[in-house]
Here is the input.
Amino acid sequence: QERLVESGGGLVQAGGSLRLSCAVFGNIFSFNALGWYRQAPGIQRELVAAITNGGSTNYGDSVKGRFTISRDNAKNTAYLQMNSLKPEDTAVYYCNAVRLYPQRMEYWGQGTQVTVSS
Here is the structure.
């Protein structure tokens, strides 16, 4: 059964970097896209970055130029490299996987906390 497990969160100072990992248990190729979302207290969950099976990427406006999403199909893992972190990046980060066929299915990890101190 498919599941996603995030790791790599933690506490970092502003300007620092973190790399999040999302281990995909299941066939990574069966998902049309993998993504990262984040949710801060009192704020709606928002897209951080997404990557398709073909390697196309999409980023939220607030992280463009600072964050990079990638995937290693051989390791069944997706990554989110976060550089130049800001206090406003503080949130719980969730890994997401979407399968479109035969019907749309969406999977979520349990989340990993990222805290950026000023």
